[in-house]
Amino acid sequence: MTVFVDVVGGRGRGPNLTLLHGWGLNSRVWDGVKDALAERFTLHLIDLPGHGLSQGAPVTSIGAFVDAVAHAMPQRSHLLGWSLGGHTALALAAMHPTRVDKLVTVCCTPRFIASEDWPQGKRAEVLAEFARRLGSNYSATIRNFLALQALSMPEARDVVRALYQAVEAHGAPSVESLAAALDILKVSDIRHLVPKVQAPTLVIQGDHDALTSTASAEWLAANLADSTYCLMEHAAHAPFISHRDAFLDHVIAFLES
Q1: Which of the four pLDDT bands, split at 50, 70 and 90, describes residue 205?
Q2: What's the CATH code, domain 5-256?
Q3: Is residue 227 flagged as an active site residue?
């Protein structure tokens, strides 16, 4: 599957950095940090399959997400993934270790749904409710999902506005693509792949995140071969918007170290 890639920063002027967004959004979520990162890196901003300008038949497995991104990104690159994009980035780094120099995960979990051996996840009913609402009231479902990403934050309105602008910039995904991606999140469990990730990894987590838990991020950092854990205080699910400067400081320092 061919996906949309926006290359920013001038080819060859800096190390490659590929960025992957989360469910329901697109690569325009990085607008607030794009210019600062492009001063140091050649950015490859990808719209995940079925999202933004990467329209087509719904993708039904995390392997298909990985294949699409691997085909679109440079042969060697740093990789930064947020939420679903982070889940994809982890799997890609494990399956294509020679392609990833350094990895940054943002508010990411190796398994979204809780189980007896994974209490760090969310209740299955959370995704089930999203799926139920998608078919009946798409706009309200997206708005509610975006609001969750800024829960309990003073800057909530600004964060939600920035995320909604990103949705509109590249167009809303189809209901079918969103439902297919939810089905992936419902069943995908890549915990077995995490120890296979060879790239040095920065694990960024917001301590007020309502969608992925600090316990999940701590497990991730503990089970990666080479990890640095960064808990951002007072941040929710989108710290690159709500805590832009601190986020940039952490990412740039890690990638350039």
Answers
A1: very high
A2: 3.40.50.1820
A3: no
